[in-house]
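Possible regression after last week's pipeline update?

I re-ran a chain I had predicted before the update to compare outputs. Posting the input and the new output here so someone can diff against the archived version. Not blocking, just want to make sure nothing changed silently.
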Amino acid sequence: MAGALPPKGEVALSMETALLRVTRVSSVRVAAICSYDGIGIVSQAMAGTRGEDEIAAMSAEIGRAASLLLSVAADDALGVAVFGATNGMLVIGDMGRGYVVAIADPTANLGLLRLEVETAAKELRAGLARARAEPLGPTAGRTGSAA
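New output (post-update):
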């Protein structure tokens, strides 16, 4: 999966916590984390919801388009994007290696949902940065030179 870290250890726990944070908001139908490539990493959907893979792929495409638009038009980066529709809303937050996505009914508290998606994305961005910075392999934690 290019561009995304596999969900391991602390990062996987953070992803589950992020989804829980988002799904606690009333009327959320789908919460997902996907890579920039549109690959679903983890998701949670209400019973009867179909197309989780398609949701991840399309959400990534929307996130990329919004990011490109902001970079060209406003010299800015995507934080959180909110899209409204007749029967619901889509909220996408950029986590640095992918997106946190929520799809909710029109009755959802948009302010709270936006805040929870933004907070989840920021926490995942920080967790991914920590995971990247940690040394891997048998020499992890060693200092100095071998004599």
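Follow-up from reviewer: compared with the archived run. Helices lie at 9-23, 52-73, 110-133. Marking as no regression found.
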